[in-house]
Amino acid sequence: MSPVAEARMDEVLENVLARCAPEPSSLISVLQDLQEEVYYLPREALDQVARRLGVPRAQVYHVATFYRAFSLEPRGLHTISICRGTACHVKGAEKIADMLRAELDASDGETTADRMFTVQSVRCLGCCSLAPAIMIDREVYGGVNPQKLRRILKRYRDED
Amino acid sequence: MKTSPISTPAQLAKLAASARKAFLAPKPKILVGAATCGLATGAGRVLDALREQTNGKLDGLRVLETGCIGACFLEPLVDVVMPGQARITYAHVTSEDVPGILDALAEGKVYEKRAVGRIDAEPFLLDDVKKNYRRGKFAEDVRKVPSYEKVPFFAGQLHVAMRNCGYIDPSSIEDYIAKGGYSAAAKALTEMEPEQIIEEIKTSGLRGRGGGGFPTGRKWETARKAPGDVRYVICNADEGDPGAYMDRAIIEGDPHSVIEGMIIGSYAIGSHEGYVYVREEYPLAVKRLRLALRQAEEMGFLGDNIFGSGHRFRIRINRGAGAFVCGESTALMASLEGRVGEPRAKYIHTVESGLWAKPSCLNNVETWNNVPVIIARGAEWYASIGTEGSKGTKVFSLVGKVNRVGLVEVPMGMTLRQVIEDIGGGIENGGQFKAVQTGGPSGGCIPSEYLDSPVDFDELTKLGSMMGSGGMIVMDDRTCMVDVARYFLAFLKDESCGKCVPCREGTARMLEILDGICEGRGRPGDIDLLHELSEAIVDGSLCALGGSAPNPVLTTLKYFSEEYRAHIEDRRCPAKVCRALIRFAIDPDKCTGCAACVSACPEKAISGEKKEPHAIDQTKCVKCGVCVDACRFDAIEVKQGSETE
Q1: What residue in B sits closest to A101 (Cα-Cα)?
Q2: 3-state secondary structure (DSSP) of residue B84
Q3: Given B257, B414, B532, B582, which is the most exposed site by the fewest CB atoms within 10 A?
Q4: Cα dihedral B347, B352, B355, B358 in deg (nearest 10)
Q5: Does residue B494 register a pLDDT over 80?
Q6: How many helices and strands, by DSSP H and E, does chain B display?
Q7: A25, A66, A70, A139: best mutation site toward chain B, by most B Cβ within 10 Å?
Q8: What is the pLDDT of residues B531-548, one digit of tens each?
Q9: Residue B439 — left, alpha, or beta (φ > 0 → left; ψ -120 to 50 → alpha)?
């Protein structure tokens, strides 16, 4: 856990829990909100969620590892999602993964050494007309090619 | 505009009249397609430029965001309503076009550079009327722009589900009401008995748009008759099929249509609580839906005593967490309960015992969206569209190697050829059609000899594929069908929840075999083994994910067996896709030594002197093909066989 998130962890968790009913059915929503704030699900937080929602820890862990959206490992500041939908596949999604590996030295599921980017594959982004597509955080980019990809990544690097 | 809550149909009618007057006001209006696909191609910058530069310039001009009209290949799209003339569609608009568009509009002229089509009348589908924009004669330059009926992409289409997408501002409930919105809910709740509504839905012939094609009316009837006081209405917006995005477009462009459908459904089956389960990968859809729900609550369309009928109904949103299997009804309900999305056996259907073990009526986004139309226009009208067994229209996402990609809504029964060739404009880059994949991972690949088959639920099933949620991925001669089958198996293996062993292990074993075939390690018995495993997976899986998992393999084996044999017997990939069976080579006659490929290559496998022909180090090359895209001189060739001669 990054020092910033650690210091704020209790506060973040309180805010997240305040938005949901304190019952087992809120588990997925709580984990989603938590991940959005901290970028991953720290173990200490999962234990607290289990206690507060009255869900066995094993079940919290089951849910956190079942769904693709959750990560138990620290992640980069930005998440690059490579769309693996059918249209993107036939238009060269594999190539994008190769390009990203070249640019960032991070393969599918990995985080760059500087914790700037996490690269992941996702099921269809639903932007099939823009294939091949990627999503960085919540921003979708279509028709990705090497030049375009470099421009996009540069923009994120310059911003931070 | 702040409007007070509506508690009677008469109040709604009054509001609708004034909203429509404002909607059709003879003032210039600019609509920017701002769904996810529009925004990704730069609609946001166009919108900013428009808002900045219109500031006080034109009297009464409104600049609005709208949903996706389906013509994704033309994005970013800007539509300009010229008062007294027509609505002009401008394609591929950039912020540099903005001054030109505004100047032209100020002079009452068309900005010809980007004009691709003209809409002559604003359609009001629910009221069966069209209001002409034109007063008097067309200006010469307006007349020159082809009307939508003459634009090939739109000519064969019939927008029912997408009736408001691209016409209204999705963040404005007034726009939706102006289009006749919520009048069907008002009619249903105050003039009709629940049984009458169910009868109407049954007569319409509406079948579930999410994939199964189960008759909606029958589902509602069973849910209504199921014992118990508490019932749930659920909207499945976990659009998981790769290659399908109509549900995203409908929620982003017309969120209230789904809410209205659910209100009518809740009254018909006697439910007071609804859920929308929407993919987290669709942030804009979630945002628009949240806003729409709040507006509907403020207006009194959700809450207690809706339209004074005594009916109460509320909707909650749950976000999916990235599990394909949650599109399956029992898995989705488990996920709503906060558990992992594992399907259960359906000895008892979810309409009798679903969410929290209560009767639950689950329908897909497009299904709910069709409901208000059926109530407003009548079941007979709806049933007059389509084929014997499949009524109404269906939205398809026509994507892949086709010229005009986008969302296409056509009457059921149109042939695949009409959709792909007439509307889609055929194969991109002059390629050859090879197959069209429908039905997502549960569907199959249909070859060219069946292109004249009509598209409806039963015909596609006969071909070994299925309708699914409406993805139509077009493949050309540069698509390898074995690779496509492998792709789907890899997808399904990853997404199998793991509950049933035949699905969990079977998909993994099938993938191993397909990996082998694609990597040149295919063996003579592989095809028989694939058939055998397919049978075991179908028989031994609880849910449709496993039950249909072998479909992509079975259809490609059936229609493209030669391609499998080329891989297995000749170690050859005819489409030159499978990396282990091809190699890349630089043609020294074409190579200028510009080094574009050198910097593009992720493996640093290309080298050479500047301005001299370059060469690829085959030991380093991973055959990703990035260099082919980077080369501006067409100098990099893909060759059969992995070894150099």
Answers
A1: B602
A2: coil
A3: B532
A4: -130
A5: yes
A6: 26, 20
A7: A66
A8: 999 999 999 999 989 999
A9: left
Residue type, B610: K
Read off the pLDDT of residues B139-171 as tens digits, 9 standing for 90 and up: 999 999 999 999 999 999 999 999 999 999 999
Cα angle B269, B273, B279; round to 5: 110
Interface check B39 vs A, CB under 8 A: yes
- Chain A's closest residue to B245, CA to CA, is A126
Q: How many CB atoms lie within 10 A of CB B67?
A: 26
**Inter-chain CB proximity B279 and A85 less than 8 Å:** no
Evaluate if residue B372 carries a pLDDT over 90: yes
Interface predicted TM-score (ipTM) of this complex, two decimals: 0.91
DSSP per-residue letters across B256-269: HHHHHHHHHHHHHH
- Shortest Cα–Cα distance, B25 to chain A (Å): 34
Return the bridge partners of A14, or none: none
How would you classify residue A54: left for phi > 0, otherwise alpha for psi between -120 and 50, otherwise beta?
left
Contacts of B601 in chain A (CB under 8 A): 102
Q: What is the DSSP letter of B448?
A: G
pLDDT tens per residue across span A59-71 = 999 999 999 889 9
Q: Say if A116 is an interface residue toward chain B (CB within 8 Å).
A: no
3-state secondary structure B530-557: HHHHHHHHHHHCCCHHHHCCCHHHHHHH
Euclidean distance between CA atoms A120 and A83, whole angstroms: 9
The answer to whether the beta carbons of residues B620 and B605 sit under 8 Å apart is: yes
Indicate the residue of A25, A68, A92 with minimum beta-carbon distance to B337: A25
| Cα A61 to Cα A50: distance, rounded to the nearest angstrom | 9
B556 reaches A (C-beta below 8 A) = no
| Residue B196 CB neighbour total at 10 angstroms | 12
Contact list in B for residue A103 (CB cut-off 8 A) is 602
Q: Name, in order, each residue with C-beta under 8 angstroms of B77's C-beta and a sequence gap of 6 or more.
A: B32, B33, B38, B43, B69, B71, B89, B90, B91, B93, B166
Q: What is the Cα Rg of chain B in Å?
A: 27
Report which residue type is found at B542.
L
A32–B40 C-beta distance less than 8 A: no
Per the listing, tokens 């299904």 go with B367
pLDDT band (50, 70, 90) for residue A5: low
CA of B246: which chain A residue's CA is closest?
A126
Element (H, E) at A76: none
Q: Which residues of B298-308 are buried (b: 16+ CB within 10 A; e: fewer)?
A: bbbbbeeebbb
Whether residue B40 lies within 8 A of chain A, CB to CB, comes out as yes
pTM of the model: 0.95
pLDDT digit string (tens) for B406-437?
Answer: 999 999 999 999 999 999 999 999 999 999 99
**Chain B: closest CA distance from residue A57 (Å):** 13
pLDDT band for position B60 (cuts 50, 70, 90)? confident
| Surface of A (8-67) touching B: CB under 8 A | 24-29, 31-32, 55, 59, 62-63, 66-67
Of the candidates B444, B392, B450, the residue with the CA atom closest to the CA atom of residue B416: B450
What would the two tokens of residue B421 be?
């060739």
Which residues, including other chains, have CB under 8 Å from residue B622's CB and lie 6 or more apart?
Answer: A98, B579, B602, B603, B605
Instruction: Tell whether B243 is within 8 A of chain A (Cβ).
Output: yes
B625 and chain A in contact, CB less than 8 A = yes
The residues pairing with B88 across neighbouring beta strands, listed in sequence order, are: B80, B118
DSSP code, position A73:
S
Residue pair B324/B488 in contact (Cβ under 8 Å)? The answer is no
Least Cα distance to A65 among B326, B497, B334 occurs for: B497
